[in-house]
Amino acid sequence: MDMEIRGHRAEIVAARITFQHAQESFLLRCRAQNLSLLTIGWYKGILGAFGCFLEAHGIDSPRDATPNLIRSHLDQRRVSGHKSCTIVGIYGALRCFFSFLARERMIPASPMSLIEKPRKERRFIQALNLDQARILLAQPNHDTYAGLCSWTIMLLILDSGLRVSEVLNLRRDQVNFQANSLRVMGKGGKEREVSFGSAAKQALWRYASKMGTITGQERFFVDQFGRALNARWLQERIRAYGKTAKIEGVRVSPHTLRHTFATQYILNGGDAFSLQKILGHNTLDMVRIYVDLADREVALQHRKYSPVDHMGVFAGERGRVVLRFGVKENP
What we know:
This protein is mainly α. The chain folds into two domains: about 1-115, Tyrosine recombinase, N-terminal domain (DNA polymerase, domain 1, Orthogonal Bundle); about 130-300, hpI Integrase, Chain A (Orthogonal Bundle), CATH 1.10.443.10. It is built from 14 helices and six strands. A three-stranded antiparallel β-sheet has the order 1-2-3. Strands 4-5-6 form a three-stranded antiparallel β-sheet, with no helix packed on it. Helix 11 crosses helix 13 (about 285-305). The longest helix has 21 residues, at about 285-305. It is globular, with a radius of gyration of 27 Å.
């Protein structure tokens, strides 16, 4: 009898919980887990949009969010133009949110258990070819600070596959010139070591020598006033360089440089497992895409440099092989 009473009281308490209170409790849990500010902000944005959706439907408690209502929200985001990968991310965030509420007994059960995971479209990743990468690197003016800085960053990403956030958050004490390596803080606060080549080493050393030591600033890459760089600044400069270089058919961005590194790594004989470690991926799923991309690049190169095609050979009639300089019968 006492258990029934306590269970009934728990249901009454859960019924009184507002979505705002549930969201605050979940975000508190995220902070207690020491998740990054970026991740917490991501959760907050997704839950904020979902809360507005519930409010528009006259719902103030998370326990009233039915599976069909959640499906409607996901569909609304899809119709509004969000990509499939974004929809999958929203689904994952809501699943984590409602699982937390169920564990905390704020709701009887998670409605997400009845909702199928949205299908994620497999988009073909575009990367720069080597000629495009070379002409892109030729655009910055090294006589200006902005040109030297952006050129060094582009070269580093092409050589190491770092994310934009990892480059811009790189500290001076994380660059080891003797070992040709960087200690990088990746997603989820996971630290990893990434190597760089001799060309990147020279570029980093040249940049560091020109910048010198800035009192109170630990960042390796800073603006001309010694302040931390903004990701938007870097994206806009690289996009402008791509436009000046007249690169077409591929988006020119810092992330494209990361894709280019990964593709060229596989093409140059690197294996998927070491690439996964370098890029900081938890699984091989993303790396398999780069392997497929490398395979496609090999096929394109074969069509471009096919030995027989360059011989000027074409098929004749009745099993004959006809050459431009004569005719040779098949034996």
